[in-house]
Amino acid sequence: MSGLVQDVRYALRQLRKSPAFTAVAVITLALGIGANTAVFSVMNAVLLRSLPVRDPQNLYYVQIGDGENQPPSTSSTGNGNTSFSEPVFEALRERSDVFAELIAYAPLAVGKVAVRYGDSPEEAEGEEVSGSFFSGLTAQIVRGRGFTLQDERQHAPVAVISDSYWNQRFARSRSVLGSTIFVKSFPFTIIGISAPGFHGVEPGVSTDFWVPLQNRQELNAWGEPATFDNVFGAPKWWCLQMMARLREGISPARAEGALESTFGEAAKIGVGNIDRKKWKPVLDFDPAKGMQGYNQQYRDQVHILIALVLLVLLIACTNVSLLLMARNEARQREFSLKMAIGADSLHVFRQLLTESCLLVAAGAVCGWIFAIFATRALAAWSQIESGLDPDRSVLWFTLAVSTLIALAFGLAPLWSALRAPISGVLKATNSGLTTGHKRRIGGRVLMSSQVAICLLLLVAASLLLRTLRKYQTQDLGMKTAGLLVFGVTPQRPHTEQEAFGAQGGLIPALRRSGGLFF
Predict the structure, then answer these.
(1) Cα atoms in the 13 Å half-sphere on the side-chain side of 356
(2) DSSP code for 47
(3) Co-location of 36 and 157 in the same domain
(4) CB neighbour burial string for 358-374, b if at least 16 within 10 angstroms, e if fewer
(5) DSSP H/E element including 480
(6) pLDDT, mean of residues 182-206
(7) Does 128 or 403 have the greater pLDDT score?
(8) Could you give the C-alpha distances from 73 to 70, 236, 237, 273, 358, in angstroms and in order?
């Protein structure tokens, strides 16, 4: 242990002697490790991350398979292959031989819904869910309770809020349980708070609150105006999305075959006979991993991106390796002296490895900070509210990359250090330590390869910037300078506020604001 402490102290002294080298090496490594960590965060969120619940490997998103959408003559939500009717949900839920739990959910609006707490109106992400939502997902409720089947059947006016919403909107007040929030002017009593880190099941969206499935027309799913055919419970209103927890031993393929008949019969309810040549009642189970929809659409793009940033890391490591080798060339006299007085190769390697570990550790810490800000910038740019923050998997990835880099940096200069001639310490000049012909050729090859890789990355970055610039300057067929698009979300639908906009009261009022609009 004392030897390790001595090596660390010696390494710190050596790094302090060359502050310029240390700063350049740490910054270079920070950029390489940080870029890889940020992009791996995206790949982890889009392709790999599971929901923060128990046994996530048994959770699946339920979809209509074989490229089919919902049956003809039914009301659509725009998500035809992931939407189901309430009769279909009830019929499938009875198949306890296949499902351990079947969960239904639907957003209260496309985007955010009007919410009021006290006298403060705002907008928040809300969903209506089945009674087994939290218990079926095994999502923990840290305060209060979750929903029950009775809450769903009675369309109870109760709500569960997320931990992030509790922190943001209620300042983590302990008195929030039992208080009332108004959703589109209808009161809901807060009965529970979800565990930290749980943001719901919608990809890229941080859900703020959940309520049981509602049959109020004003709270119709997806914010759609309620009519005879598209209100909750109507067989032609295919509005529910579903997640399934399959029973142990039931594979997705086995579940698909077992449920085909049940799904086909339930789909006929309210629709009548369906021509199976035009529409096949086939289910598909997509693992609840990554972001549903994004994981297939952007898989290749994410892989290309991670390959590019790995090249960036390779360039950064090559740069630092060259710096270390050049620095160690100047230290060959030091190595010769150590070998002359009896130091073995293991001792020299241990000191070089300690210096490398300190450099990489500093670069990894700075890279982690850079990655946090980079992922936040990516989330803001892509309008993804949750999932991109570095988590434990990303941290392990960063530690693994840093460990490999530290070992490489410890081994790379070791050869030149061990080849330092012991007799060189007895000479007044460094003639015996000059660079050989083969080493010069190797350095040139390394430098040429680095320039080639940099040129490749520069071309790829230029093409990417050109594409982004093209999208930014695309002609929309109208003047966009000074153009502002906004909406008005009334807290009380079908009242005077809605009539104010519908009867033209809003537009003339805005037109009179001559100081704001042309």
Answers:
(1) 26
(2) I
(3) no
(4) bbbebbbebbbebbbeb
(5) none
(6) 88
(7) 128
(8) 9, 7, 10, 11, 67
Report the distance separating Cα 73 and Cα 274, nearest Å. Answer: 10
Same domain, 266 and 305: no
What confidence score (pLDDT) does residue 511 get?
Answer: 58
Instruction: For residue 22, give every residue at least 6 positions away whose Cβ sits within 8 Å of its Cβ, in sequence order, or none.
Output: 15, 16, 359
Alpha helices (H) in 141-251, listed in sequence order:
149-153, 163-170
In a domain, 512, yes or no: no
Are both 317 and 209 inside the same structural domain?
A: no
Pick from 289, 306, 338: which residue ends a domain? 289
Please compute, for residue 238, the number of CA atoms within 13 A of its CA located in the half-sphere on the CB side.
Answer: 25
Domain-located, residue 13: yes
Question: In whole angstroms, how far apart are CA 160 and each of 69, 245, 301?
Answer: 32, 21, 37
Per-residue pLDDT at 428: 45
Is 222:106 a contact under the CB 8 Å cutoff? yes
Q: Output the pLDDT for position 431.
A: 46
Instruction: Give the pLDDT of residue 330.
Output: 65
Please write the tens of the pLDDT for every residue from 233-244. 888 898 899 999
Shared domain for 162 and 275, answered yes or no, is yes
Structural tokens at position 260: 């085909």
Domain boundary among 409, 434, 459: 434
In a shared domain, residues 85 and 199: yes
Q: Contact 302/310 with Cβ under 8 angstroms?
A: no
CB 150 within 8 A of CB 183: no
Alpha-carbon distance 369 to 317, whole Å? 19
**pLDDT tens-digit series, residues 347-401:** 777 777 788 788 888 888 888 888 888 877 777 766 665 556 666 677 777 778 7
Beta-bridged to residue 211, according to DSSP, are 128
- Name the amino acid, one letter, at 287: P
Give the domain extent around 226.
56-289
Q: Is the dihedral of CA 482, 487, 488, 494 positive or negative?
A: positive
Residue 89 lies in a domain: yes
The answer to whether residues 256 and 118 belong to one domain is yes
Domain count, the chain: 2
Whether 446 shows a pLDDT value over 90: the answer reads no
497 occurs within a structural domain: no
Instruction: Give the DSSP per-residue string, 435-471.
Output: PPHHHHHHHHHHHHHHHHHHHHHHHHHHHHHHHHHHH
Give the global pTM.
0.67
Q: How far apart are CA 399 and CA 181, in angstroms?
A: 44
The strand pairing partners of 117, in sequence order, are 120
Query: Tokens in use for 333?
Result: 């006299």
What confidence score (pLDDT) does residue 426 get? Answer: 47
Residues 227, 327, single domain; the answer is no
Q: Do both 268 and 302 map to the same domain?
A: no
User: Which residues, other chains included, contact 255 with Cβ-Cβ below 8 Å and sequence gap of 6+?
Assistant: 98, 99, 244, 246, 283, 285
Secondary structure element (H or E) that encloses residue 161, with its range = strand 158-161
